[in-house]
Amino acid sequence: MKMYKEKMTVRDFENTPEWKKYFAERIAGLRMSKNDKLSSRKLSQELNQCESYINKIETGRALPSMEMFFKICEYFDVTPAEFFMDDTDPHQKNELNDLYSEMDSDSRTLILQLARKLAKSD
């Protein structure tokens, strides 16, 4: 009996559950924001996986094991909780937190006022 995997088409990905799409898109987004657009092949190699590993995840053909999910989070320096946060770049959030903690009280007050004003203008 011949065993093979069929190629997944764009239409197949459109029929993929939303949570699986989110997972695929989140990994792609983190990968593209790291090191001048890290390739999926290079990331697969960095994780000691076959060259197509990340591509299969990003196209919805596979999901990582829990152990590999934690390794992916570690690679991108995000917690599993941060991985699932909507449209928040965890690196920017961490940098903002670090900068905020280094500020004096008056600067913190000004930043908070500015953030409130910017949030209202959206």
Indicate the percent of residues in helices.
55-70%
**How many strand elements?**
0
Element-by-element helix/strand order: HHHHHHHH
The average pLDDT value, as a whole number, equals 81
- General shape: elongated
What is the radius of gyration computed over CA atoms, rounded to a whole number of angstroms? 19 Å
Tell me the major beta sheet: none
- Give the number of helices: 8
Structural class: mainly alpha
% residues in beta strands = under 5%
CA-CA gap between termini: 59 Å
Give the oligomeric state. single chain
Which stretches of 5+ consecutive residues score pLDDT under 50? 1-6
Features:
elongated, 8 helices, 122 residues, 0% strand, disordered N terminus, mainly alpha
Q: What does it look like?
A:
- The protein is an all-alpha fold and 122 residues long.
- Helices cover 65% and strands 0% of the residues.
- The chain is built from eight helices and no strands.
- The chain has helices at residues 10-14, 18-33, 40-46, 53-58, 66-76, 80-83, 90-102, 105-121.
- The radius of gyration is 19 Å and the shape is elongated.
- Residues 1-6 have low confidence and may be disordered.
